[in-house]
Amino acid sequence: MNKIYISFLSICVSLAMNAQLTQANHAPVPSYTYAMYHCDSVNTDAGFSGANVLWDYSAIETFTDLVTDFSAAAANNTVFPNAQVLLSSSQGMNYYYSSTATDLTLHGGNIAFSGAGANLQYTSVAVVAAYPMGLNTSTSSVTGGNISVTAAQIPVPLAGTFTGNSHVIADGSGTLILPGANATFTNALRVVTSQTVNAVLAGQIPILGTIAATATITITNYDFYSIGTRHALFSMQVVDVNVYADGFGTLPFSQTTVLRDVSTGIAVSTPTANFSLSSNTICISNSVTVSNNSSGAPTLSYTWSSSDNGNVNFSPNNTAATPSISFSSAGIYTIILTAADEGGTHSFSRTVVVNDCVGIDKLNDERLELSVYPNPASAVVNFSTESQNAATLVLYDITGKTVNEILFSNGSANLNVAEMNKGLYIYKVKSENGNTLKMGKVIVNH
Length: 446
Hints:
The protein is built from two helices and 29 strands. With 446 residues, it is an all-beta fold. The longest helix has 5 residues, at 358-362. The relative contact order is 0.12.
């Protein structure tokens, strides 16, 4: 059966060494804000429970371009009259809480995931923290209330009531390690909150009338807290959802969300350098522009270089994100981009063939028509032209070193590449007086 992993957002905490969660350091308060990066949810698990546990997430893949912002405000919603604080996210989630010196309770809110969503109003609230809360502190509550559910496959919303239960336990303490500097927390506490919702629903479809439905939602949150922060530094939220509706069958949905604090440490995933060129073959009088497709942390920086820096100019400079590149002499150049951030460096290169186009102009403005096949090749590459001016084929590797030179015979040349290393090569077709008539690329792929 397909599973659904959905995000029920984590709340706040601070913890002193051997201290406990209390209303003062854990309950959400108005005007509090924070942000969380989204992380790899496929290769991540919640780790072990118990005392003196090491939760090492220092190498977790972090998507620094995916950030969810959270903010708390005084609750002012007649649907949740006893709620004190509204916790909202930039993804449209809203949760209503109230707290006392002995507990934190959830009054309701909404969850949304790919293809479905639900709104819950608790008439019997869910207790999601018991104060003071240290290792092995736990509490349970019976829940119930009103619910509405939407699913992409069902054309109308479903509404009804639900019953369920909520259980929360601080099941682990120890050391939490997150990516970046100063991101090891030796006084971490993990709080696991589990909820089950069993709903009886109905909806009205024109002509068809009333359809009956049921829904089962199970939610498990793993939230890791430490002293000095009011929200979880690391959070893994898991939800299973199945909706059954008459005429539609069972509809399962799935989603996983893993979050980590933006302000803790730094993103240490190695950056990825990547770019494309406006042209890979140009005349010496022209320049090329780049499209920079690199990815990494917000602090990503760039350095451009080439295999022959003396004949290559980067404008306005070689640290610009998208410089214009010009050349002072013909040749074969390897353009190198090195991207760097706190996670390290990564380089990527492309080859540019710069042609001295004067030779072509002198040949009565003739543009050589040349067939090159097969390309890529593993054995022989055939070159064929009707021009009588083609005399010599010269082959270079990407460093500009001459690899082979053969003669045209009756407009044809056959290049044996069977013993050559696989990769990219540049060819020039030259006339008898040495003028370059044509340049291009050959790929050897055994």
